[in-house]
Amino acid sequence: xxxxxxxxxxxxxxxxxxxxxxxxxxxxxxxxxxxxxxxxxxxxxxxxxxxxxxxxxxxxxxxxxxxxxxxxxxxxxxxxxxxxxxxxxxxxxxxxxxxxxxxxxxxxxxxxxxxxxxxxxxxxxxxxxxxxxxxxxxxxxxxxxxxxxxxxxxxxxxxxxxxxxxxxxxxxxxxxxxxxxxxxxxxxxxxxxxxxxxxxxxxxxxxxxxxxxxxxxxxxxxxxxxxxxxxxxxxxxxxxxxxxxxxxxxxxxxxxxxxxxxxxxxxxxxxxxxxxxxxxxxxxxxxxxxxxxxxxxxxxxxxxxxxxxxxxxxxxxxxxxxxxxxxxxxxxxxxxxxxxxxxxxxxxxxxxxxxxxxxxxxxxxxxxxxxxxxxxxxxxxxxxxxxxxxxxxxxxxxxxxxxxxxxxxxxxxxxxxxxxxxxxxxxxxxxxxxxxxxxxxxxxxxxxxxxxxxxxxxxxxxxxxxxxxxxxxxxxxxxxxxxxxxxxxxxxxxxxxxxxxxxxx
Length: 505
Ligand code: 6LW
Hints:
The chain has 505 residues and is mainly β.
């Protein structure tokens, strides 16, 4: 049977997976986006459907002043005694914590904090009742540390001990401890989450080591390969209910050469084989293709989600996110039924703040996003529209504002691009009152921005390169979002921006 990678395309990095009987659950990291840590459900490890988020309240997810790639780093998902546990790190507010629930769709508990330095925490529930808490020892650490905790309180029961330093790659991280046939295995990532990324493993009779490094390390890496997938690493292992073994991990799909990637780090799946001497091998000796030919679990695909959101429901659907913690007054689905109404803040897409933004990940290279906007700006600086957003310094907007210096008060639709300290307005087309349809068409290397006027005339305002929104240019750990936004650029907007629908195909 054939399946396609990435199994979860778009910015869904650092996957962690757990099984309950014949049901599979998976989480990924979310940095400064809100709500945090989406949770997915699958019957076959290949087709995933989002069922909720683990972090849905400001108490669980304080993100004030977090850089877009700060906040929530890599999570681990585990199941023990009828409870799901998701542990992660808020690198700006409180460090390591975990939340738990009996219903993975939520709600999840308040955070329980654990006082150990570093990132990438993992839990292992041993048969003797001990709970091991394993993580790196610092943000860019040189080793894996571990202690035992009281799972009810998060209190450390033992001192944190250095248990492994990896095989010599930089930043040994993403540790996951497993006990397989009475041997403790410690899976890690090394090399940093870039083109040198890799997965290594070691084992011991004792959860604290000494750990013997696998002679086949790295058991997954695409470093220096001529391959469509790169930066493979940060894995989690799972034994399926039929006894087959699998790994989920992150990878990127660069476009162009030298490489650039803008969709972020995505979630991949590969079969795992065990050698006669008891070591796992991921994929084809550590290489994983976009198309995988292997025996799979019985396939269970989900219905394709609708392309259009009409904003007819009382809650925002699963794909939508805010940036950081926004105030309830910034958006509404009830103020004008059937419309998403945004109230622009003083903050704009340029600010490390909580701009009025509702966006979704761009998860395909070729796609089109359109929205119908009803917005009559009342004061200078008020604007609303669509943004292609990588971070505060790298984003493109097609929006509506009052035409600069225009005494008649006419509005204009514009295309503005920001790349670092360079800001350019490519086009400004005056338009009268009335609803507009704004469209962003994405190709692997380029975005095109269109406006359809009330008379049905569709005009190309200009284009922007995907390269300048890529991780190679912008840095960070996230991928591109496409979103609706509103701002008063320095003052709260008097005029509300109303979106009748948003279509993504
Ligand atoms: C994550 C670390 C990593 O915590 O990148 O790829 C960091 N791996 O393990 C941010 O995702």
